[in-house]
Structure formats: C-alpha cells, structure tokens
Known about the structure:
Radius of gyration: 33 Å
Strand content: 25-35%
Structural class: alpha+beta
Number of strands: 35
Number of helices: 19
Oligomer: single chain
Helix content: 25-40%
Amino acid sequence: xxxxxxxxxxxxxxxxxxxxxxxxxxxxxxxxxxxxxxxxxxxxxxxxxxxxxxxxxxxxxxxxxxxxxxxxxxxxxxxxxxxxxxxxxxxxxxxxxxxxxxxxxxxxxxxxxxxxxxxxxxxxxxxxxxxxxxxxxxxxxxxxxxxxxxxxxxxxxxxxxxxxxxxxxxxxxxxxxxxxxxxxxxxxxxxxxxxxxxxxxxxxxxxxxxxxxxxxxxxxxxxxxxxxxxxxxxxxxxxxxxxxxxxxxxxxxxxxxxxxxxxxxxxxxxxxxxxxxxxxxxxxxxxxxxxxxxxxxxxxxxxxxxxxxxxxxxxxxxxxxxxxxxxxxxxxxxxxxxxxxxxxxxxxxxxxxxxxxxxxxxxxxxxxxxxxxxxxxxxxxxxxxxxxxxxxxxxxxxxxxxxxxxxxxxxxxxxxxxxxxxxxxxxxxxxxxxxxxxxxxxxxxxxxxxxxxxxxxxxxxxxxxxxxxxxxxxxxxxxxxxxxxxxxxxxxxxxxxxxxxxxxxxxxxxxxxxxxxxxxxxxxxxxxxxxxxxxxxxxxxxxxxxxxxxxxxxxxxxxxxxxxxxxxxxxxxxxxxxxxxxxxxxxxxxxxxxxxxxxxxxxxxxxxxxxxxxxxxxxxxxxxxxxxxxxxxxx
Length: 635
C-alpha cells in the first residue's frame, strides 16, 4: 500500500465496546479524558494508530455513540475511509445505531465491517440468533453485504481476524489525494504551555509542511505551521488522510474555533449559500416548511440556516433526491462534492444529508427553470468536470482526463480548448494539462521557499535545483515542477546558475550579524596579496561560527572575490589582478619560470601555484617549460 494514510471509524451504540475494541487492536486507551473515565462514555474523539505490516498508516477513531454527542460523531466520520460498526452480542442493533447508519450513508462512507463484540457473554445458539437479527436489521443499508467478524476484546478472540479483514478491506479504498490543495477542517483548538495555539483534525486533501504559510478560513487569518505532530510524534510534514495536530504561529486560541478550516491556497472560498442535492432519512418525519430553520453539519462546522425549495412549499419523506438551497447564518468553507448532514434543531432529529453541488449559490426564482438549472449544475459542465479533476490530480493527459471525467474525446477537446482560451487551463509539454491556478500556487510557494532559503543562507548563490524539486515532489508531479521552474526562469522571476536557483532580485551577501567580522577576514586576506597564509590562520579565534566560516569561503569562491590557491589557501582576486598586471608589464608574449620570478619576486612556494592558477583561468597556456599569454591574458 506504500506511503498511504487511512482513518477507520469505530461506530455504534454506547456501551457496545468500541473503546475496548480500539484498545485491543492498538494497545491505546482512547478514553483519556478524566470526565470520560468518571462518566464511562467517550465524549471527544479519541485516536489511536494501528500498526500494519504492509506500509499503510492507519488511525482508528473511537466515535462517540451517545445521542448528545452525535455532532461530535458527524465531525469524526467526515474524515473516515472505512467504518467498523460495533454491535454487542448481548444487545444487538439499538435505535441510535440506526440513526448512525443513516448518517454514515449520507456522508458517503462506502467501506464497512461489522464487529460483533462481547461474544463471550452469550452462548453459541444465542450468538447465531443475534448475528441473524443484525443481518436482517442491516439489510438495505450500506452494511448490507459487509463482512462480519466475531470478537471479544477482553479475551482477545477474533482480534487478529478483525485486523486482517481491515487490511483486506483497505486494499479497495481509494486513498485521499495528497496532490490537492491542503485542507484541514479543525475539530479541536487548544493551547500548550510554551507552545501557543494548537489545532487538530484529519487532513481531507493535500500536504502540509513544517514552516508552511497557511490561512484560517472563513476569517482569513494568516498563520504559520510551526510544528506538526502525528500520533504525538513530531513530523516535517503531514498528508491527506492523516490525523494531525499543528502548532500555529501568528494566532491566539480565541481567534480560532472548531469548524474553521486550515488551508494553504486561495482555491477555497467561504460561503453562506450552498446549492445541494439532498437525500432524506428512510422514515416519516413532520414536514419541513419552506425556509424552515435547519442545522447543517459539514466538515467539522455546525451552522444554523434556512432551507429553500424551488419546486415545493414543504418537504415530506421521499426516496427521491431533492435539489434545493441552504442559506446559512454563518460562512462555511466547502467545495463541490463535500458531504453534509441536515438536522432539525427542535425537536432534534436527523432529516437527511447529501452533497454540495455549488458552493456559492445565487438568488434563484421559484419554479421548474431553477430545478433544471440545478440539475445541469449537478451534472457539471464539461469545463467544470475537467477543472474538478485537474484540481485534484494536478497534471493529466487527455486519456486520463477521459477516464476521470467520463467525457468523450470531442467534448473533452472542446472543454480543454475553452479552458485554454479563457486562461484557466494550461497545456504543459506533450499534451498534458493543468490548471493556471495550480501553476500560480506552486510558483508562489517556490518564490516563498527561495526567499526563505536566501534569508537562511545569504552567502550562497542559490538553492540547488534538486533540493528545490525535492521540497515540492510530495505534493506535485515532477514534470509540473520542471515546467513551473522553466516558466519562472523565462518570466525572470528566478535566475538559474548552473544547478542553482535564486530569486531574480537576489545577490549573495554577507549576513548582517557577522558582516563586520567577515569584512575584517576578507581585508586581511587582501592585504597579504599573493603571499596569503592558510585560510585557517585568518579565521583562528574569530567568534564567527564554524558553519558560517565554511559558507564565507564558498561565498568568496562562488562570487569570484577569491581563488583557490593551494589546497588550504585562498588568494584575493585583487592580488591576482595586481600580479597579472605586473607580470604582463615585465614579460614578452612568452616567458619562463625565471622571468616570472624576477617580475614577481616570489619564492617557488607561491610562484608555482600562482602560475598554475593562471593556466587554470585560461590567462596563460603552458608548453613544456614556457608559458604564453592567451587572448584573454593579452594586454
């Protein structure tokens, strides 16, 4: 499975053994909160890592089962790839479990396993009856046809079988796309002594790097990822599917709340009007009137709003999908395709759920015309479909675009031509396509990375291209990175020097902190001329740190202010220029060692390396014991 990340949800009725089962699988007790221990119920979401043998990284989330904590469950499920429904053998399916199942279905969970727990509490015959009853109750739900595993968390029966069933199931789960723009819906905010503000959540898409500049939406605060933790271990990056905690710089705990979304690009918008495709629960409820207040759960946010219909004045139970709009009291951050749940605020009950057709809904007239427009929008225009796929996959050729959009060749061609014409789509080398906004995003990230590199290493001519490419290779395909670099060089945003990259406006310079000390070292080197001492003699006793001394030496060589004279010696450029002028004035077009010695008055220790340096710089050429001035060296 390689470097992939999955989240598994433990769902089910209170007291059916979810926390104990999680502990049996992972050796982690997710019932950590003192209050939970005292009350014996799971309130906050507890996460534990499941060790696998095949390279996949799996988190198990123990979803609270109590009705009062159902909103917590919705937030937890929103980031889940596979759900394990926990049903106690001595109790069977409970009414609240059925509500959980509908929520799971509305949230688009497709992969399920049924774990029948506490099997040691019932006899063989009772276990058969209970299993049959559970199968009947789950018929027609997403768990219809799901594998069943019998376990007892206390004795450990069935735990290994459950693990192998989980790993088998995960082989068919499409893992979250690390190539999308980073998005993390926040479900917890807290402070850590001496660290500041920390947010926690499951990454829906993309990758976040330590040091990344991020934005908290909908408020738009700019923050920095100072530290990243996955399962309490510090990491340099975290990616889609991982449960992570991020220490944020530049913001107070009071400025962020659960439901906010952490993003790394401007691909996301805050909206208070969403056009949706709504599926209703499978049982009777009091009709919902036009503009009735509803509570919407999307990602980790929970917002009040009004439901607006365009083809009816009240909504009764129906199996048909209803196309409508929800006008929210507060902004949320959603994308087309995001799943949501709608609940009635009083009496509290789940009404249904579905997906967002259009994140930024407009004001539409009541009537068939709007319904047809919403239906078309639901299908998506060909350009929408292409842009949706490219936003996730970043770089695709026509064949893969046809596979992923289901458009035929002609329709795809028209969509690409239209996108290229209006500048939203760009063609990268040999028929591969990407989005302009993805190019702009990567370009901005690269400029930011180079700026940061120049601040850290002001004396270097730039960052090595290989290192720069490597920095972004986990989030972007390599050909796209190469294209972006080439385009940036053509547009004079960056400058290429050999294998190094730098901002076009950057020139290597001495760091402010050590400038005076370093200028002293350079002045001493220049003063000694051709008869320079060893490099270590110039830097002995200086307070400048060793790494900066190495950087200074490389800086003098790279910028041509000094030359490597002998293995452990540098010579200042001005000394070389003076000696060349002197030698040219006192020799003919061809000269030998004696003439050079007379002209420069140097011992062999310095004379031989100096003449070899002239050969190396192509100022002279040597033939046997004579040297000739080249065109470059002629007066």
